[in-house]
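Budget justification, computational time. The allocation requested in the original proposal was used primarily to generate structure tokens for proteins on the priority list. As evidence of use, we reproduce two of the resulting records. The first is shown immediately below.
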Amino acid sequence: MCGIAGFVTAPANLIELTTITKKMVGMIAHRGPDDNGIWVDENCQIALGHQRLSILDLSSAGHQPMQSPCSRYVMVFNGEAYNQLLMRRALETSGQAPVWRGHSDTETLLAGFDAWGIEETVKRTIGMFAFTVWDRQTRTLTLARDRLGEKPLYYGWQGQADEAAFMFASELKALRVHPAFENNISRDALSLKLRYGCIPAPYSIYEGIAKLMPGSLLTVSLERREPKVWTYWSGAETAELGVANIFTGTADQAVDELEVLLKDAVRQQMVADVPLGAFLSGGVDSSTVVALMQAQSSRPVKTFTIGFHEAGYNEAEYAKAVAKHLGTDHTELYVTAEEAMAVIPRLPTLYDEPFSDSSQIPTFLVSQLARKHVAVSLSGDAGDELFCGYNRYFMTANLWRKMIMEYMPLSLRRLLAKGLTSISPQWWDKVLGAVESFLPRSARFANVGDKLHKGAAVLASPSSDALYRGLVSHWQDPESVIISSHEPSTLLTGNSPSLNGLDHTQRMMALDMLTYLPDDILVKVDRAAMGVSLETRIPFLDHRVVEFAWRLPQSMKLRDGKTKWALRQVLYRHVPQELIDRPKMGFGVPIGAWLRGPLREWAEELLDESRLKREGFINPAPVRLKWDEHLSGQRNWQHSLWAVLMFQAWLESRNPGQP
């Protein structure tokens, strides 16, 4: 895992190219503290920089930037090609292999470029990556990002006329130190931030800077300034092809094939020349990954869990039970609310652009814990999107399809929704908590009050697409909050893929895979882990697993009131069912309660009406209304308020000392 940065520019001398590149990669040294390198070509006005976190081939043979065997290509690479040994074997079998200098995957990919070309090599690669390669023959720069968007890559032209530069980097902080960077905040992107809690690709918080979309390639040159972007792998097409070519075997055969695929993905991702472990929450996804790791390891796998003293947010006891059963080398750390809140001042710099998934806090804490023991950690992310794990899938599949669409008119639904939301989530928790002990475990839900308020959104939705958009929106009308903004189209608003053949629940899963997963979950994990120089790997995002998951019938994902049915069957072969079956809790912190308590003064300062007016980005009226309702306990607006607060904290970090 590494950090990359560089640019193509108007005429500049060698000293200027080198000095700027050193500054850029220096800003992302945390992504690769073990080594760094720069390659510049004064004649072509190209500069490439690299910060290395040494995982494979710790020798100097893995140093980057690296040239291909024929010297045509020069590359900086961030990520892992898990099947690189198979790629080497293919090159050797065809007589196209060079004399290998080391065993890094970067060297393998460059040899593939020489033999097969860039796009064909990317299509052959199983892995996570973001890279930039300079073709010295055609004087063209190519950018690439992995299929599901695990690794980040920002790019764009900045500067005017003869001073303009095309720049790229793993993180925005590397771009900001380039002298041509214009530093203009995009109000339109900010409106997206308030809707989703993150800024979805291809947008960024800065005008003129974009994120390369997952599964995409881009080429650009000084002669052809307009970037050409195209897709080499499509998640939407994968979903459509999957449901059109559904798995026709038995349920047992499906579980067998899924286990084989997952075991191979886990096996490939356990290859490292440094200590390796895994995050373990005790839930289905992380437990499956750890179980398959331990089944293929000759020694106890190192596992890591963060625990909280607040019962509604603590899964550490479940993780400990799973670890004990599997025999892992388990480390857990219970953190106080004060220790968790101490992370908040670091978030604006860590995440680099406004980002407000509050589980960023425990994600950083568990990454920090793991880094004390290992350099690589596997995680169970993406199991929910692929195997129908989120409560909203279960809720809408039953409530929307079976009840609302068939029996209840919209006017009556909206009246019922108003009644549900007129009662605070805290009151619902108190009343329903009293009867919960009499219910079977499968009928219990954590944070039931919040879920009832979300259920109200289901009731009031005029269509399934509107329902989904409402469920994932922190602010339903962000243009009314961000001054002089116009919300751009996204995959959820005006630019939706067709997703032919998918039913309503499958459509939600696909849109989550295309948006929420890369723009929120994977950003959260990448920045938190790389902030402490920890590489994370996600076996569920092996594209072979993704493609097979979409071929599974929906009945093998959601069955008898159970989400992730097929995945659970794999796990039950390794871990007793009673250790796993419990209400889904999620990985979060009690932000709502903190805002009413220890964070109240901090939040009040950031949400001060005169301050908001002076800064000129946020309309104070709707924000102050939600803040007052939240403080009174009338409503739980934690997600809406956290979205605003994380922008305010980020804005303050740009101008320290200026409230």
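The second record produced under the same allocation is shown here.
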Amino acid sequence: MARLEQLIEGVQDEQLRRAIEAEIAALKERTRFGLVYERHLPEMTLIADPDLVEVGSLVRPKEGVDKEVNYRVVAFTVKNKARLVADGNGNEIEAAVGDLFVVKPFGESIYPSLTPVDVVERNSERPHHAVINGENFHALQLLAYLYEGQVDCIYIDPPYNTGARDWKYNNRYVDAADSYRHSKWLSMMEKRLRTARRLLKPDGVLIVTIDENEVHHLGVLLEDIFPTYLRHVVTIVISAQGNAKVNFSRVDEYAIFCVPDIGTDVIQGAPVEFLPAPGDLTAEEDDEDSEPGTDHYVMKQTDEAEFVVENARRRGTESLRENRPKMFFPIYIDEEERRVVSAGPPLDVDQEPEMTPVHGLRPVWPIDANGDHRRWRWGYETMLRLIEAGEIQVGKYNKQRDSWTINRVQPKKQAETAGLKKLKTVWRNTSHAAGTHGSGLLAKFLGRGVSFSFPKSVYATRDCLAAVCRNRPDALIVDFFGGSGTTLHSTLLMNAADGGQRRCILITNNEVDVKTTARLRRKGFFRGDVEFEAEGIFEAVARPRVKAAITGIRPDGRTVLGSYLDGTPFAEGFEENAAFFRLDYMNPDAVELGAAFNAIHPLLWLAAGAHGSCPEPLAVDSEDFFVSQRGRYAVLFSVAALHDLEQQLSGRDDIPHLFVITDSPDAYAEVREALGQGRRTSMLYRDYLRNFRINTAQSA
């Protein structure tokens, strides 16, 4: 604005100058506080699908993909080639249809589908997580159709816009020399965040991790998009050694929590303040009895699910005697009665533990199988109170080591609320180290030959998610900057800890890094080619990482070596399921004519909760209706078969979703009246088409 005023001063015509000054003054009054950036920078995606190439399509040849010259298809010639006219200069060229990308500007209606590409299943009683390979803007449109108002937590780790060519805008890497770098980043984020907000429940929470490059811009953007939400900024130490920058060595990054500000109301039975946790996540506690909270997830329920049992000895990070000397002391037990009697005072740092029984009572120390001096979970005074309450009990006897396990046993309901306190806004915990528990852990699951830049610590992500979803065992979690799959891996850890059935929907792309792209292009391989796609993030990192986490087997067939912080071997994996999809695009005419049911069918399965196996293609022409055996949904193909379906669904409370294929609103109303009680119903293909005709343009 200052530069504009300077230019106005140079206008010689006084009357014109005053008129311009008046308009500028009026413009200043209308400009509200907030971000000023190029909101409408065009954004587009390139689709490698020859079936979408039609006369009139906007396309770009693969070999000229970086030249940013688009062409219009004007005709098809012999041998499956297309005649193209360049936008702008009118130059004509000819290219094979298979060598073209279809260019889809954001805002132009798209009709997405999901093509199953892989699955891993280890427990038929649990729902499936989903990993989607595709452009996240369009995938978010799809999720808005499937899950509007149903998501408990959105966690994203977007590009940090460091200027180091770490992300692309319109297929070109953005670097520090780009004068529109921040505007492009904000424009990209705004489009996606506005759609993401539609996914959240009334008490749903958005978490965004970011560093200093965009944290302040992001804060103002979030204030604009989520004006009624509270915004909490948590500083997470991710590298104690630091990352050298100008003047300072950065050790941290930020997690911004956007939490609905709903006053003193109670939503869905949960208080407004739904972020308490067992202890805090700092390394420096307020007192000797507080617990850092790293491995409170070690707790396991008994078969009767009435009690929760946790080992009284601290494990994982900060568990050594030297970390908390006052938490190293003996617990005295009566071996014959298998009963905890008392505890002795803490030893001085230089004192050795005494193993001799005292008055017939055997001392048990927090010493592990390797002979290392560890510590108890609680300080001396707290331990005495727990012993008095009968919560500290003698566990298993290890004959080989001649040692006893000491446990804390609590009623389940008591354990769920014990020791809860508000999380602090600085997390300083070694489990959050991105090197050890991010890139180091990823290498264990994939092997050393696979690289991915700056993966998050699985425990830092878990603790962010747990702040929101700890008491939501059936939470739906979405990450649309899924990268290497850390968010889904973290969800697996939470479920394993408390038996929850949280489900994660992960959206990632199959981006190939700069050096690999150059190497592949020299060999004549481009996006869409099998050889090229095999080295992308989805194919080489996210999909194999999720499969290895669930199965405990690396992509090369070897067992994953090592253990989680609670001592569980990586090789055990998780009794969970995950389905993998490719985001594809359909011709809307095929949808309206009813020729695309099998392309849409996986969407219905996901909308119904992804129970049972992903559906196989159906012979639609020979079916009047379909009732999924375990998928919790039904589809009515012919309204004439309403009464037959009604008989099939009689007493079936396990079918909460109903999809009706009809062009008649009256017929749909009749079906809904007959079968819609207590069921979520949808009219196909009207609701599907309407969603993408309207919402794609609005979001762009």
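A brief technical remark on that second record: The mean pLDDT is 86.
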